[in-house]
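User: My instructor asked us to take a sequence, write out its structure as tokens, and then describe one feature of it. I'm not sure where to start. Here is the sequence I was given:
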Amino acid sequence: MPQSDEAAADFFNVPAPVYLCDEVTSTFAVAHALAQKGALPTWGAVLAACQTAGKGQLRRQWQSPRGNLYVTFRLPDNPLFQTSAPALVTGVLLAMALGRLGYPLRLKWPNDLLNRDQAKAAGILLENRGGVLLAGVGVNLRALPDVQQLRRERAAPAGLLLTQYGEPAPLAPFALWQALVREAISTYDQTFANATAEALPDLVEPFLTWRGESVTVSDTDGTLLSGMLEGISPAGGLCLRTSDGRSHELFRGSLARA
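Assistant: Let's start with the prediction itself. The structure tokens for your sequence are:
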């Protein structure tokens, strides 16, 4: 049955422009081009049905099968996003917003969101291009990456976005973004707009997975550091206490349970 004009208007009612694409190299590339033309305001977004060259943490390939949410949006110009770990701020913002929508998530430092089964349901990548801070987000709604193409040393299995009852999200990608961006803006205005970097630990740590547990952080050069995950520093670093009692503040690496 055709939608009424009122229903159609409500379906496309979003608080910021959304550019809908089918297949693209990456939503980042399209969003950057739009931002350069002055056509992507704060919270403006690019959604794609699939990506042929999506990227994740450490520039790893991000598989993008159809059915999931792939979006890049413009973040506000706020000092919280100018810390050494802006992905943490974005991760907590999205975790709060998705939690309000009924999808409880935990943040795995530095840029993954885990569902109630400790599986990776979403990933976040931030890039500052020409003074414009863009956040790329991939959320598993219907399809999971091919296990054969995932890293063997991955810290968490891939999983779907789940409700608090363990059921897959019933929303299609655009409908989820429509609800998510509204909640994200509301959450930002209430909690983040006037917050300072000193508030970062208080914002992040309630959502931080494996806090108080033994973990290992591996760097790209093969260096491993193990210890107890104590929390987050005001600069956004991971605070790790090793067995010799020393405290370390880390700003890069892959986190896993020891």
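For the description part of your assignment, you could build on this observation: The two ends are 55 Å apart (CA to CA). Try explaining in your own words what that tells you about the chain.
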